[in-house]
Amino acid sequence: MRPGFGSNIIPTAESMTYAQQLGV
């Protein structure tokens, strides 16, 4: 997982993109 994904309350563009790649 990339830093900030799932551990940061504020969804960043990077974390949102990573989530889309996972298909969640």
Largest sheet composition? none
Share of helical residues: 40-55%
List SSEs in N-to-C order.
H
DSSP E strands, number: 0
Mean pLDDT: 66
Low-confidence stretches: none
Overall shape: it is elongated
Question: What's the total helix number?
Answer: 1
Report strand %: under 5%
By secondary-structure content and strand pairing, the structural class works out as: mainly alpha
How far apart, in Å, are the first and last alpha carbons? 13 Å
Q: Rounded to an integer, what's the Rg over CA atoms?
A: 8 Å
How would you describe the overall organization of this protein?
By secondary structure, the protein is mainly α. Helices cover 42% and strands 0% of the residues. It is built from one helix and no strands. The model has no long low-confidence stretch (mean pLDDT 66).
Summarize the model shown.
The protein has 24 residues and is an all-alpha fold. The chain has one helix at residues 13-22. The protein contains 1 helix and no strands.
